[in-house]
Structure formats: C-alpha cells, structure tokens
Design brief:
CATH superfamily of one domain: Urocanase like domains
Bound molecules: nicotinamide-adenine-dinucleotide
CATH class of one domain: Alpha Beta
Strand content: 5-15%
Helix content: 40-55%
CATH architecture of one domain: 3-Layer(aba) Sandwich
Family: Belongs to the urocanase family.
Structural class: alpha/beta
Number of helices: 19
Radius of gyration: 22 Å
GO molecular function, one term: urocanate hydratase activity
Largest sheet: 9 strands, mixed
Cofactor: NAD(+)
Protein name: Probable urocanate hydratase
Subcellular location: Cytoplasm
C-alpha cells in the first residue's frame, strides 16, 4: 500500500465507508478528519499541506503526516496521542474517557510571540502555523464559514435595513476569494444582495465559480459595477469576482464616484509575507519577489494594506457601512504604518456577533464519516424535527441544501447555543444526542463527528477580533481559551487543541477547539452531553464575567452558575 502520503497521492481524500482501519471510531475519526482537511476539494494547496488562511497547515511535513497516520492507526482506546505543531511527539496511556488526541499549534512564549520568531523557528522545522481549523483537523472547506458570513450579513441587514432585514438592492464590496473569503459572494446572494469581490489570483475566482460560490468573473471593473448596479436596481441577487488587487479596486471605484452600500475585506492580511498580495504585481511576479527579496515584499505589502484601509475609510466617509471581517488588516496598518485612524471602522464581532456569543451561540458543525450525503440529509431533518419553532434555522437548512455544495466529507454548519430547557440539556447537547441516537438506530450509516470553528463564544482571546472592545476591557486576557481547552478535556472531548495566531496572525490570538465522535454508544452520549454543555457554557460565563446583560440573563435562564455574580 505504501506510506500514508503515497496513499494520499493516490486517493487524495479521506477514507470513507463503514469499515475502519484504526482500533476504534475515535481514532478513525481523527484519521478521516486529517485527510479530509487535505482533500483537494477542501484544501487550498494540499500538496504543500496548506489547508486555508494563508499558510494554515494540517501537518508540519509529509514525514510528520505519515507518522501521525501510522500512530492513529495503532492508537489504543485507552491511549492519547500528542501532536506539537503538526508533528506527533508522544503517546501515553490514559483512559477511555480521555481525549484520543491532544494538539498544540504555533504557541510561543509572550516575548517571542511574533511572526519574526515564528518564521525563524519554522525555517528550522520546529513549528507550524495551524491557523484555526487547519492544524486541528476541523476544516470543512468554504462551507464551514458560509453560515457565519450569512449570519453576519443577516445581522447587518437587521440593524441597518430594518424594512427588509435583507440585502435586497444593496451592493457589498469586498476582497479575497480564498478558502474562507470565497464564502462571501454566496452569503451575500443568499441574503438577496449583490457582491463585487476583488481577487488577484484568477485560479481562486475559477474555483469559486466551479463550486457555485460566485456567479461571474471579469477583468473589467466598469462592467462589474454596471452589472452590479443593474442587478441591485432590479432587486436581484448577483455576484462577480473582479480579477484585480483589492486596494486598487477600491481606489478605482472611488475615482469613478462609486460608493457601495457595504464594504469589507477578507484577503489574508493577517500575514503580510505569505497571505497578502502587494499592488503592482501579478501573482507570479509577487511570488518571485517573496522568494528573492522578502523584505521588499513585506514593505510593499504593508503599503498596499494601508491604501486598502484608506479606501475602506473613504467609502465609510461617503456613507458605506464598513466592517473588518476578521483578517486583522486594521491591526496590521495601525502597528506597522502608524496609521492613527485604522480602527475607525469596527470589527464584525462587536458590530454583529457578540450578542450571539453571550448566549453561547457559535458555529457548531458536524461531518458524516461515512462520506454518504444521505447521512447529512438525515441530520438536516433532525434539526427541523428538534427545533420546529426556529424559522431562521429552517430557512438556513433549506438554503444550505439548495445552494451549498459538499466539499470532501459531507458536512453541515449550524449556529447553536446554550439555551438549556427544563431537562438541563443545552441546544447543542440536545442535537448531538439526537444524532447519536440516529447512529445507534442505524438511520445514519456511520458515526458523525461534531466539532466547531475556534471562533466560538468562549474559546478565543483575540483583541482585534473575537474579544475586540470587551465591555470590561479584558480583550487580551488569554486565560479563557486555556480554561476552555482544559474543561473540554475534563468533559471528555475526543480531540482537543490550543493554537496561537489563527485568523489574525501570530501573537494576536489564542484559541481552542474540540471534536466529539458520535458513534451511537452510551459513552458517546455521556461525553456529548457534558462537552456540549461545558463548551457553550464557557461562552456564557466568559461574557457574563465581562458584564454583558444578555449573558447574565442566559446564565440565569439556563441555570449556569456564575459564582461571584452577586458579590
Ligand atoms: P486564503 O489565504 O485561502 O485566501 C486569501 C485570498 O486573498 C487569496 O485568494 C489571495 O489571492 C487573496 N488576496 C491576497 N491579497 C490580496 C489583495 N491585495 N487583493 C485581492 N486579493 C488578495 O485565506 P482565507 O481562508 O480565505 O482567509 C482570509 C482571511 O480571513 C484570513 O486573514 C483569515 O485569517 C481570515 N478569516 C476570517 C474568518 C472569519 O470568521 N471572519 C474566518 C477564517 C479566516
């Protein structure tokens, strides 16, 4: 059969079906999720182990990948594998209820916690950038972020366009059609709006066209604006990828006197060397400059970012609604270009998402390990049956079924929260237990793994993103994601990980993630009930501690103890 990486070359995807290669489904789930991250339908550059988000990797090297696969195939039901920045480094006897895999990626000690030290250590082969879900084997392609983007734009519409609560007749301008950014055009059209997205790399636009995330592409900005305006006037959804640099596009729009209704960006600005492209170069020219003269590359990249932010601010000045969509472009420009007004437009979390976090709501996702789409369709029905009163959720499931193509292992995302009922079950636990029953009853053909983005209610400290402008000023306190990971280990999650730098770059964030494998067993039910209480519960207490009334209310309604609330 050859080594695991030789096998990857051959089948290039996750193993599927109901027969397993590992000793148990928990290890098998880890193996399939790692390989799913590297499925060419899922990952952006799988041959380099790059999954998404600039250089977010699933394993440190192909040797490390081989060793991880071998370890997982051999791992017992009472053992735990340790993965340090994408390389397996140890294996210990633990117990059945303990995690099977523990992962730490990209973490550095405070004084050394920056890209410069990271790149030195990376060059020595000692560390790997895990982004968020890349290094924790929870990435599911652009479908993973689509609901988050959809919800963000829906909340924007509710706040700014109360008459329609949709983007009908509105034009959204953005940049970046990569792994995550590629969800933007579809999320805009799902909300009824029109999207113009700049992307320097034509292949990335083609990929979004092929998978139905974007409708058209052009090199001609006038044509894009004309088509967008015509669609908006008719109230029709429309999306177009413009093959150009985003900073150049915003300036050219302003020169023409064109101001969109909404402006944002999702280029990989968190990484000035390997994520963002400077103006004035084709992709090939810029890639060559990076190789030959990284210092000039970084200088030019940051200069373009500054023009990019200035373009966003100028559009805001002219009446556009502006927000940063989690790539730290404001922080980059403020830190490296001494730009005083870079933060004069808000990040998406304080603007639109924090009220959801206060209730423990976040991007719950689940993956059918069988590879059979019918298993996900059965879970879609289960969501509808379990939450008959949630019209918004039903609309989302309908839209997702119609418009979101599966990539790799079939999966689904749904924002669910704490919101415990009288029986004490949280929304997330109730749903996970239902799936576990369906697996036990044979209505779903193989186990389902439930995981989430690191971007969740109680799992991130990221002062320019998830914890921007916290009510009590606790933005940079990173005890919370550490407590989240420790608590989810105690609760029995099957994989637990802690990363540095996801979304916004090294030194700017600490965050944690977990997986629970629902194989239909009583043990899986026990773990799911606990983890899907502790995990969203962390979101509730983190925001209650910061003084958010919605979180305190959620804690009272759902009986979540907040020890010092009355002192
Ligand atoms: P990616 O690296 O897969 O894609 C980035 C894309 O931007 C690439 O296609 C690249 O060609 C393009 N690009 C770079 N510079 C450009 C420029 N100046 N003009 C036009 N196009 C340019 O990254 P991704 O996975 O799509 O993530 C994008 C960013 O969003 C990252 O910074 C990531 O950390 C962040 N992110 C945000 C969220 C969120 O929830 N808001 C979630 C995940 C990631």
């Amino acid at each position: 059969k050859g080594s695991p990486s030789e096998q990857w070359q051959e089948y290039q995807g996750a193993p599927t079906g109901t027969a397993i290669e590992c000793e148990g489904w928990r290890q098998e789930a880890a193996l399939r999720m790692l390989n799913n991250n590297l499925d060419p339908e899922v990952a952006e550059r799988p041959e380099e182990l790059v999954v998404y988000g600039g250089t977010g990797r699933a394993a440190r090297s192909w040797d490390a990948y081989d060793a991880i696969c071998d370890e997982l195939r051999d791992l017992g039901d009472e053992e735990t594998l340790l993965v340090q920045s994408g390389k397996p480094v140890g294996r210990f006897e633990t117990h059945e209820r303990a995690p099977r895999v523990l992962i730490a990626n990209s973490n550095l000690v405070g004084n050394w916690d920056d890209w410069e030290h990271f790149h030195e250590l990376e060059a020595k082969g000692l560390i790997m950038y895990g982004q968020m879900t890349a290094g924790s084997w929870a990435y599911i392609g652009t479908q993973g972020i689509i609901q988050g983007t959809y919800e963000t734009l829906a909340e924007l519409s509710t706040q700014h366009y109360p008459e329609t609560e949709a983007l009908e007749g509105k034009i959204v301008v953005t940049g970046g059609l990569g792994g995550m950014g590629g969800a933007q055009p579809l999320a805009v059209t799902m909300n009824g709006g029109v999207c113009i997205a700049a992307e320097v790399d034509e292949e990335r636009i083609d990929r979004r066209l092929e998978t139905g995330y974007c409708q058209e592409k052009t090199d001609d900005l006038d044509e894009a604006i004309e088509n967008a305006q015509a669609a908006a006037e008719n109230g029709e959804p429309y999306s177009v990828g413009v093959h150009t640099n985003a900073a150049d596009m915003l300036e050219a729009m302003l020169e023409r006197g064109f101001v969109p209704d909404v402006v944002t960006d999702q280029t990989s600005a968190h990484d000035e060397l390997e994520g963002y492209y400077p103006s004035g170069y084709t992709v090939e020219e810029a890639d060559q400059l990076r190789e030959e003269d990284p210092e000039t590359y970084v200088e030019e990249s940051l200069e373009t970012m500054e023009r990019h932010v200035d373009g966003i601010l100028a559009m805001q000045e002219e009446g556009a609604i502006a927000f940063e969509y989690g790539n730290n472009i404001r922080g980059q420009v403020a830190d490296h270009r001494d730009h005083e007004s870079a933060f004069d437009y808000p990040g998406f979390v304080p603007a639109y998402i924090r009220p959801l976090f206060c209730r423990g709501k976040g991007p719950f996702r689940w993956v059918a390990l069988s590879g059979d789409p019918a298993d996900i369709h059965r879970t879609d029905d289960a969501v509808r049956e379990l939450f008959p009163e949630k019209d918004h959720l039903h609309r989302w499931i309908d839209l997702a079924q119609e418009q979101v193509a599966f990539q790799g292992l079939p999966s689904r995302v749904c924002w669910l929260g704490y919101q415990a009922e009288n029986d004490g079950l949280t929304e997330r636990a109730r749903f996970a237990l239902r799936i576990n029953d369906l697996v036990a009853e044979g209505e779903i053909s193989a186990p389902i793994v439930v995981t989430r983005d690191h971007l969740d209610a109680g799992s991130v400290a990221s002062p320019n993103r998830e914890t921007e402008a916290m009510k009590d000023g606790s933005d940079a306190i990173a005890d919370w994601p550490i407590l989240n990971a420790l608590l989810n280990c105690a609760a029995g999650a099957d994989i637990v990980s802690v990363h540095d730098g996801g979304g916004v770059g090294i030194g700017n964030a600490l965050h944690a993630n977990n997986h629970v494998v629902l194989d239909g067993s009583d043990l899986a039910a026990e773990k799911a009930k606990r983890v899907f209480t502790t995990d969203p519960g962390m979101g509730v207490i983190r925001h209650a501690d910061a003084g958010y009334e919605e979180a305190l209310e959620e804690a009272r309604d759902s009986n979540v103890p907040v020890p010092m609330e009355d002192r």
